[in-house]
Amino acid sequence: MKAKEWISGLRVYEPGKPIEELARELGFDDVAEIVKVASNENELGPSPMAIEAMQEAVGEMHRYPDGGAFYLKRKLAEKLEVDPKNLLFGCGSNELIVFLCHVFLERGLNLVMGAEAFAVYFLAAALYEGETIRVPMPEHTHDLEAMLAAITPETRLVAVCNPNNPTGTVVAQEAIDRFVENLPDHVVAIFDEAYFELMPEEQKPDVLKHIRAGKQNLVVLRTFSKAYGLAGLRIGYAIGHPETIDLLNKVRQPFNVNAMAQAAAMAALDDVAHLVETREMVFQGLEFFERELPRLGIETVPSGANFILARTGNGREVFQALQKRKVIVRPMDPYGLPDHIRITVGTPEQNQTTLDALKETLK
Ligand SMILES: Cc1ncc(COP(=O)(O)O)c(C=O)c1O
Q1: Which ligand 1 atom is nearest residue 164's CA?
Q2: Peptide bond into 138 cis (omega under 30)
Q3: Contacts of 232 (CB under 8 A, 6+ apart)
Q4: Do 310 and 341 form a contact (C-beta atoms < 8 A)?
Q5: Whose CA is nearest to atom 13 of ligand 1?
Q6: With contact defined as beta carbons under 8 Å apart, do 328 and 34 qualify?
Q7: Contact 203, 304 (CB under 8 A)
Q8: Per the omega criterion (within 30 degrees of 0), is the bond before 184 cis?
Q9: Whether residue 155 has its Cβ less than 6 Å from ligand 1
Q10: Is the CB of 228 inside a 6 Å radius of any atom of ligand 1?
């Protein structure tokens, strides 16, 4: 066989092992004892209303889903105060990142991103032979001026994760507005707001106002994976100018978002109590880690999301030692942060277990 030459050089995203497999390898009997705080999931679980909607939808799974996500689009448009034409759904917001790279990149073109930002941007650009320009992030934060300055005539996409994964840092509204104003026409800016609903109100950026005002080269990405606790269903969305959305829609497969995901997302949008409870859990958890980790001599980075970057020293060793104590975090060496781990904020009990395991590990 003769595959395209550059495909064999692609790097593959390495997901963590299934928790059951890890338990088997480490010789633990009870999977329930393992605290997995490695993937920024919602440890409260899905909204009970979403669970009920999924149970009701089960009997209809012989049908193809609504490829246009008509009802969900209408409901979400109303909530976001945009037109349904401004929206497109994906199999996770991850798929929308791939659509953006598919539409805008090819050999010789590039994507600008933060040096410590979400790795999928790098991987998705490479899928279309796009290069990545990585811009340093002072104090682990996107430097929007430097990102603008890094744009070349060959740049087609610039990605800002806000808050950023894995650093949790947030960029301020004035910086965003200046960036949008100075963005060259040949570049589409992506504001990846995967953690938007979990941010403290006063930190929430307003990028949608630029889209409502008709800005064409701007796309916001959000997801049901984080605040709504539906990561397993794979559903996220893009908000953009109708012409930009139409372009992304051209590379979308007809039934990319499954029917169960659409049903659950509809219900999750109505469950205000679950969102409030989730936000409370996250704020309390962040406070806990910001207070307790420095007592162990571990520096933390201020976070606007449901995880915290912690400077433990030798992140990979700490990750392995924690695993033996039944706590799974994420080592940060793939992000060029070998001294750090990333901890997802969980329930108070999970947070305490994680802290106790860290104390033992660092003894
Ligand atoms: C910044 C950022 N963007 C996008 C995603 C992808 O989310 P999903 O594909 O589950 O919507 C994640 C998930 O970790 C993320 O952290």
Answers
A1: 1
A2: no
A3: none
A4: yes
A5: 194
A6: yes
A7: yes
A8: no
A9: no
A10: no
Q: How far is the CA of 306 from the centre of ligand 1 (A)?
A: 12
Query: Hey, where are the domains in the chain?
Result: 15-45+273-362, 48-270
pTM of the entire structure?
0.97
Residues 126, 187: Cα–Cα separation, whole Å: 18
- What fold characterizes domain 48-270? Aspartate Aminotransferase; domain 2 (3.40.640)
Residue 249: HSE in the Cβ half-sphere, 13 Å Cα cutoff:
16
Place of tokens 């033992």: 360
What CA–CA distance (Å, rounded) separates 258 from 209? Answer: 30
What residue's CA is closest to ligand 1, atom 8? Answer: 92
Per residue of the chain (363 residues), give pLDDT as tens. 889 988 988 988 877 778 888 888 888 888 888 999 999 999 999 999 999 999 999 999 999 999 999 999 999 999 999 999 999 999 999 999 999 999 999 999 999 999 999 999 999 999 999 999 999 999 999 999 999 999 999 999 999 999 999 999 999 999 999 999 999 999 999 999 999 999 999 999 999 999 999 999 999 999 999 999 999 999 999 999 999 999 999 999 999 999 999 999 999 999 999 999 999 999 999 999 999 999 999 999 999 999 999 999 999 999 999 999 999 999 999 999 999 999 999 999 999 999 999 999 998
**CB of 231 sitting under 6 A from ligand 1:** yes
Ligand 1 neighbourhood includes 114 CB (under 6 angstroms) = no
Pick the atom of ligand 1 nearest to 93's CA: 11
Whole-angstrom CA distances from 317 to 34, 38, 194, 225, 321 are: 18, 15, 29, 29, 6
Residue of 89, 120, 162, 224 to test ligand 1 pocket, by largest number of atoms within 8 Å of CB: 120
Q: Which of the listed residues 97, 118, 169 should we mutate to test ligand 1's pocket, taking the one with most ligand atoms within 8 A of CB?
A: 118
Compute the distance between CA of residue 190 and CA of residue 220 in angstroms, rounded to an integer.
Answer: 6
State the fold for domain 15-45+273-362. Answer: Aspartate Aminotransferase, domain 1 (3.90.1150)
Task: Yes or no: say if 171 and 142 are a contact pair by the CB < 8 Å rule.
Answer: yes
Question: Coil, strand, or helix at residue 226?
Answer: coil
